[in-house]
Structure formats: structure tokens, C-alpha cells
């Protein structure tokens, strides 16, 4: 009897030390619901594929909550090795030089299998420094596209296979739709900031800020009050007054999708990653996909759209073994199989060319699923269409929403509203610069 | 009042220790931290930190958004206080006149107080939701296009209603107690003298109720300014265009979402000053000058 206890105790200790030999790598993320379940499946795939490391994912709430939690943890020296940060947090993370380990450096230090050329420049460009070094690992990237209601188009006497290509057509089609009574509003949109301001600018090859949209350094300032943006915001206000366009609210525009689902609005511009959600809700009508509209009188349009979503940042100050684990995990994560599986499931963009090639079969079977990737790869990115990088950008996005609301309520015109965005935004950018120097 | 004399000098401190520890850990220490942070300029991760004197305070006073927040807070606090106390007083008077069913009504009216602010916010957000809510549908029939997502007035009304509704129960309880403490003989005497119900209310009931009213006034202003965070967060998130961005919400947003800790700390120092002022008013003025 005693022997048995001793034996089982020895076995227990042995199994414990085996478990201890496995290095745990904490990953804080912001993927709830179905995406969170899929994420855990990916992590399980990695954990089962080798024995040295165990990635432990923890859901920390929304993007801002996750970022705040990671920063607070860093201040308390309890930070995770990997944290998922949304694209507008990039400026803040990048500037925190002592707090992060750039991904290219991590992969180099750990001798990991890492070829920067394998990644899609349109996706990773947003997260590289001016020398082209990748700072964080793209995980879920998307781009805004146009969704339209084919049934309403048909009722209005429009060709259901032809989504509007230009903003002039957008207006013309919307008027036809409203006049024929097929729907009571032409279009709505999510994300005034991301879609109708940032992506609008990239799509028309117009700058948002100086010094390559902020990629050049902390001295960069906003310059989003150019003629193209003023023209577009002015039109949106006019179309809102005419009932052609309906505003879906600040930030992501939570009220926009219901207006599209209920067939009140015939078209919506929203993230390519909401594809699955849109399909699930578009039960009573046929759904079409198109690229974002452009103004054909603006030179350089259409250029390419930019991405949104989040990337994985590696925080400094963890034991070295954890970095070895993080590097291994990133290798696994960027493999074509994992990428293709994740992208097909979620509607996010694949981050490597190999993954995009592997998804060809999926794209053939699911018409419209490749709209996003076609749109970001339409042209080689210019300094205006690579992305943007400013500090305090979460608040600047809030300012964009507020000034757009001032425009809609009639208290400012388009020029005045965008001038205020620049003026108020630059104050925050100056503050950020002062904090980080 | 009888004074209790402790023979042992240590014992009273020992008895006080738990409370003192809580006060220190949860009030004094964080308050000290806030004051320290308000003089610093720091990046989000706390890597670079420099002393900037009063720069954070000066920036706030120069900022139109902060001045707007002050104004919004004032309008909000006064509206919530007037609305919740007004409705509560009406209900209390109504209950005071009842003989048999008063107890049942009192119990029912107290229920909303048990609802968490975030839940109250969500409830009213549903009722007033422009797309799926009941109220916009009803208002549309009388020709009002309710939309708290784009209209500043509608947004303010929504947060005022949601916050006031929750506080009515609390005020109601105090008013009922206050009314019951007023001797019926005084009102009866006035009635015999020929005073009507309105006159009786303004000449007898309301003045005698003033200690309760003053107490509730301070409590309600404090409630509206500091306890309504969850209501704002669950409904408007300070929007549209900062129309409902009350000071407490702005502290949270600038500090936790915007990662601007210096400015956020300076704002909490201002808030601290307001709380201290209100507390002094309550203790020095309301509790002493108003006779119970």
C-alpha cells in the first residue's frame, strides 16, 4: 500500500515537472463570440503541434479594454507576452519603444523561419517602420467594401449585377431607388472615420496627414481638410438632407447594419469581415458585393483601400523562453493553412500571398468573398494609401465622429468641420509627441 | 451627549483601525496618486515621465471640450435633481393621502432603486432606441422624430430620464418619511382657517419639509455628478458631439480609452474639489442651519 502511494506520488511529481517544462505564453485578445471560439481552436492546434510551449489565450473585452488592460498590466509588471491591439493603437504601441519587442527583431533573435517578402505589403505595410521592418504580426485585417440589395435594385429597375462604381452613380442609383419606392433610403455606412474619411482618402490617393500619413515620425500632423475630403463630407451632408444617406451613429455605426437588413437602405459600406453577419441577416433578399465608390474626377482614384482590424504585439520584460514560444507561435500563425482557414471562416484578409493562393477554391465557391482582397491589392500602395500612424488616434477617431455630427446638425459646414478635426486632432498629436520625447 | 471615556489609549485606535485602513487604501492613497499624476506628463506605458507643473490644469481650462463638459454636467445635474425630486415629491404627497394602500405603493415605488445604473441605462436605451424602441414609435405618431444618436437634446433627455428614474425611489422614501413627521394637526388647523390644499402645501408642508429637501438636494447633485457613469456608458457614451459628456465620463474616457493620464488626473482633482465643497456645504450648512 505504502509503495503504491509512493509510486503514485513519484508519478504525480514527474507529471508535474513535465507540465512545468512546458513554457506558458500568455496571449490577451479581444475576440468574443464565434471568433473567440475559432481563435481558441487555432491555439489548440498550435499547442497540440509541439510540446515545449503552451499558448494561453485570455479574452479581455473590447479592443480599447484589451489595450488598456495590457498597458495597466505593463505598469504593474504583470504584462502578457502577446497582446492583440487594434490598428489605431499602432501609434501608441510603436512609440513605446521600451515596452515592445518588434516582431522582425523577435523572429531574428529567436532564429525563427520568417520571410518578410511572403507577406502581402498592403496588409503588413500598415505595421512596418519606414525601413520596411514588421513591428507587429497582423492577425485579423479587413477592409471596407460595399454591400447592396439586389432585390431592391431589381425593383427599382436597375441592373442587379451592376453595383455603383462612382459616387455619381451612387447618387443616381439612390434617387432611382427612392423614387421608385423600392426602398426609402439609398445608402448608409459604418465607420465615418475609418471608411468615409481614412479609406476615402487612401482610395483617392489623398493624404490624411503630413510625413507619409504619420509614418515618418512624431512631427507629423493631420491634413485631412483637403479639397477631396471637404467635397465628400459636403456631399454626405447634402445626401443626408435629401434622405439619400442615413447616418448610422458614431464609432462603428451600430445602427447602420439594421437599416440595411430591414431593407430601409439599399446599400451599406462596411467591413469585409462583416460578410458572414450580413449574409446571415440578408434572408429576405439577394445580396451583392462591390468595391467602394470613387469620384472619377479626382486624379488617382481608385488607388487601393486600407485595412483595419488588429495585430499581435509582443511586450518586453518577459523571460526569454516565452519569446521563443511567441516566435514559434507566430510561425504557426502565418502558415498558409492556418491563415487560409482563419480567413475563410472569419472574412478577414489572408496576410500572406501563399494563403491567398490557397483560398482560390473558397473564393470561387463564395462570390464576393474576394472583393476585399481585390480592393486592397488594386494598385501598389502609395504614401497616401499605406495606412496612417498617429498617437492618441483613438480619441482623434472620436473627434472625427463628433465633427461629422456637427456637420449633420448644420452647426458647421464641411470645411469648418474638417478644419476642426485637424485643429483638435493636432492638439492631441502634439500632446502625444510631448509625452513620448 | 454622554462622552464615553476609554481607559486604554490604544483601544480606540484599534477599534478604528479597520475603518482607517479602508479610508487610507481606498480613498487617501488613490487621491494622493491622482494629485501626483496631475502634475506629470507621461506616456501610456509610464516609460517617459516629466514634471510639468500646472500645465495639465491650464490645458483643461483652455479646452473648449472641458468647458463644454462643465456646462453639460451642470445642466445634467440640475435636470436630474429637479426631475427626480419633483416626481418623488408628487408621488410622496399622493401616498401620504392614502390610508389603506400606501404600504403597497411604497413597496412598488422603491423597486427601481434596486436596479443597477447600467441596467437602468440599457432599459431606457431599449425603450428609446430609434430603430427598435417603443417611445420613438409613439412619438412619431405625434410628429416628433426622436433620435438620440444625432440630436443633442434627445440624448440629454434620455440620460436625464434614465438617471432621474432610478433616483425617484430614494427621494420618495425620504419624502414619505418627512411628510409623516409633519403633525397632521397643523394642516388641519390651516384647513379650518380656510386654507385650500395648494395653500396648505406651500405654507405648511413645504417649509416643514425643508430639512429633507435640502438633504436630498445635496444627495441628488452628488448622485447626478458621480453615480451616473454607468447610465452614460450604457446609453450615449458621452455623445453625440460631447452633448452628454459629463465630467466623470470624460475622466474615464480621456484616461482609460485615450491613455492621457495627466489630463485625466487633473480632471479628477477638479472633481475632488467639487465633492469636498459639496460635503462641506452638507455638513456645515445643511446639517447645522436647517432645523430638524
UniProtKB/TrEMBL annotation, chain A:
Residues 1-21 form the signal peptide. It is found in: Periplasm. It holds the Pfam family SBP_bac_8. The keyword Transferase does not apply. InterPro entries: Bact_solute-bd_prot1 (IPR050490), SBP (IPR006059). Keywords: Signal, Transport. Its main location: periplasm. Belongs to the bacterial solute-binding protein 1 family. Part of the ABC transporter complex UgpBAEC involved in sn-glycerol-3-phosphate (G3P) import. Binds G3P. The complex is composed of two ATP-binding proteins (UgpC), two transmembrane proteins (UgpA and UgpE) and a solute-binding protein (UgpB). This is sn-glycerol-3-phosphate-binding periplasmic protein UgpB. It comes from Paracoccus spongiarum.
Automatic annotation (TrEMBL), chain B:
The chain crosses the membrane at residues 12-32, 73-95, 107-127, 155-177, 208-226, 265-286. It comes from the Bacteria. Keywords: Cell inner membrane, Cell membrane, Membrane, Transmembrane, Transmembrane helix, Transport. InterPro entries: MetI-like (IPR000515), MetI-like_sf (IPR035906), UgpAE/MalFG_permease (IPR050809). It is a multi-pass membrane protein. The complex is composed of two ATP-binding proteins (UgpC), two transmembrane proteins (UgpA and UgpE) and a solute-binding protein (UgpB). Belongs to the binding-protein-dependent transport system permease family. Part of the ABC transporter complex UgpBAEC involved in sn-glycerol-3-phosphate (G3P) import. Probably responsible for the translocation of the substrate across the membrane. This is sn-glycerol-3-phosphate transport system permease protein UgpA. It comes from Paracoccus spongiarum. The gene is ugpA.
Amino acid at each position: 500500500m505504502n509503495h503504491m502511494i509512493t509510486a503514485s506520488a513519484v508519478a504525480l511529481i514527474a507529471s508535474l515537472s513535465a507540465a512545468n517544462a512546458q513554457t506558458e505564453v500568455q496571449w490577451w485578445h479581444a475576440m468574443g463570440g464565434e471568433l473567440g471560439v475559432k481563435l481558441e481552436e487555432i491555439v489548440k492546434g498550435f499547442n497540440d503541434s509541439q510540446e515545449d510551449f503552451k499558448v494561453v489565450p485570455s479574452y479581455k473585452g473590447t479592443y480599447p479594454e484589451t489595450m488598456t488592460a495590457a498597458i495597466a498590466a505593463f505598469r504593474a509588471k504583470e504584462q502578457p507576452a502577446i497582446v492583440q491591439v487594434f490598428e489605431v493603437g499602432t501609434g501608441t504601441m510603436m512609440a513605446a519603444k521600451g515596452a515592445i519587442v518588434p516582431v522582425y527583431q523577435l523572429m531574428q533573435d529567436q532564429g525563427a523561419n520568417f520571410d518578410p517578402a511572403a507577406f502581402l505589403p498592403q496588409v503588413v505595410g500598415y505595421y512596418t517602420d519606414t525601413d520596411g521592418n514588421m513591428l507587429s504580426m497582423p492577425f485579423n485585417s479587413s477592409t471596407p467594401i460595399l454591400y447592396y440589395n439586389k432585390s431592391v435594385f431589381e425593383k427599382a429597375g436597375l441592373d442587379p449585377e451592376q453595383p455603383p462604381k462612382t459616387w455619381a452613380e451612387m447618387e443616381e442609383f439612390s434617387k432611382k431607388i427612392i423614387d421608385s419606392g423600392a426602398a426609402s433610403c439609398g445608402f448608409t455606412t459604418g465607420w465615418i472615420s475609418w471608411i468615409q474619411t481614412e479609406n476615402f482618402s487612401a482610395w483617392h490617393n489623398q493624404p490624411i496627414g503630413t510625413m507619409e500619413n504619420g509614418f515618418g515620425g512624431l512631427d507629423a500632423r493631420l491634413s485631412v481638410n483637403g479639397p477631396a475630403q471637404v467635397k465628400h463630407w459636403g456631399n454626405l451632408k447634402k445626401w443626408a438632407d435629401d434622405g439619400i444617406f442615413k447616418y448610422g451613429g458614431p464609432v462603428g455605426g451600430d445602427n447602420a447594419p439594421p437599416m440595411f437588413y430591414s431593407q430601409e437602405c439599399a446599400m451599406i459600406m462596411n467591413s469585409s469581415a462583416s460578410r458572414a453577419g450580413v449574409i446571415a441577416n440578408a434572408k429576405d433578399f439577394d445580396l451583392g458585393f462591390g468595391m467602394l465608390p470613387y469620384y472619377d474626377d479626382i486624379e488617382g482614384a481608385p488607388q487601393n483601400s486600407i485595412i483595419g482590424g488588429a495585430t499581435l504585439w509582443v511586450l518586453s520584460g518577459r523571460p526569454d523562453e516565452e519569446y521563443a514560444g511567441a516566435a514559434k507561435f507566430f510561425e504557426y500563425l502565418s502558415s498558409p493553412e492556418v491563415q487560409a482557414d482563419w480567413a475563410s471562416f472569419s472574412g478577414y484578409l489572408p496576410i500572406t500571398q501563399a494563403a491567398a493562393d490557397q483560398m482560390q477554391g473558397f473564393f470561387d465557391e463564395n462570390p464576393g468573398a474576394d472583393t476585399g482582397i481585390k480592393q486592397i491589392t488594386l494598385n501598389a500602395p502609395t504614401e497616401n494609401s499605406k495606412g496612417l500612424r498617429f498617437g492618441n488616434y483613438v480619441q482623434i477617431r472620436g473627434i472625427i465622429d463628433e465633427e461629422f455630427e456637427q456637420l449633420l446638425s448644420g452647426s458647421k459646414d464641411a470645411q469648418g468641420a474638417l478644419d476642426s478635426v485637424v485643429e483638435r486632432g493636432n492638439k492631441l498629436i502634439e500632446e502625444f509627441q510631448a509625452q513620448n520625447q | 451627549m454622554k462622552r464615553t471615556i476609554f481607559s486604554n489609549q490604544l483601544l480606540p485606535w484599534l477599534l478604528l483601525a479597520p475603518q482607517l485602513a479602508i479610508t487610507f487604501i481606498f480613498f487617501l492613497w488613490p487621491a494622493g496618486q491622482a494629485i501626483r499624476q496631475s502634475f506629470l506628463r507621461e506616456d501610456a506605458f509610464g516609460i517617459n515621465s516629466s514634471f510639468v507643473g500646472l500645465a495639465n490644469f491650464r490645458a483643461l481650462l483652455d479646452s473648449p471640450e472641458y468647458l463644454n463638459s462643465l456646462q453639460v454636467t451642470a445642466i445634467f445635474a440640475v435636470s436630474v435633481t429637479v426631475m427626480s425630486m419633483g416626481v418623488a415629491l408628487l408621488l410622496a404627497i399622493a401616498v401620504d393621502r392614502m390610508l389603506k394602500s400606501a404600504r403597497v405603493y411604497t413597496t412598488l415605488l422603491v423597486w427601481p432603486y434596486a436596479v443597477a445604473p447600467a441596467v437602468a441605462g440599457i432599459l431606457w436605451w431599449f425603450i428609446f432606441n430609434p430603430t427598435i424602441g417603443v417611445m420613438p414609435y409613439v412619438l412619431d405618431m405625434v410628429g416628433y422624430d426622436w433620435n438620440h444618436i444625432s440630436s443633442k437634446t434627445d440624448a440629454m433627455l434620455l440620460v436625464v430620464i434614465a438617471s432621474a428614474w432610478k433616483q425617484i425611489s430614494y427621494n420618495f422614501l425620504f419624502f414619505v418619511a418627512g411628510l409623516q413627521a409633519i403633525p397632521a394637526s397643523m394642516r388641519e388647523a390651516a384647513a379650518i382657517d380656510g386654507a385650500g390644499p395648494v395653500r396648505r402645501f406651500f405654507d405648511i408642508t413645504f417649509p416643514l419639509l425643508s430639512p429633507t429637501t435640502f438633504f436630498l438636494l445635496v444627495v441628488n447633485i452628488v448622485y447626478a455628478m458621480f453615480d451616473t457613469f454607468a447610465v452614460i456608458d450604457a446609453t450615449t457614451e458621452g455623445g453625440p458631439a460631447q452633448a452628454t459628456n459629463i465630467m466623470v465620463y470624460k475622466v474615464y474616457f480621456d484616461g482609460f480609452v485615450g491613455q492621457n493620464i495627466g489630463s485625466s488626473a487633473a480632471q479628477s482633482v477638479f472633481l475632488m474639489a467639487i465633492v469636498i465643497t459639496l460635503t462641506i456645504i452638507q455638513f456645515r450648512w445643511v446639517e447645522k442651519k436647517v432645523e430638524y
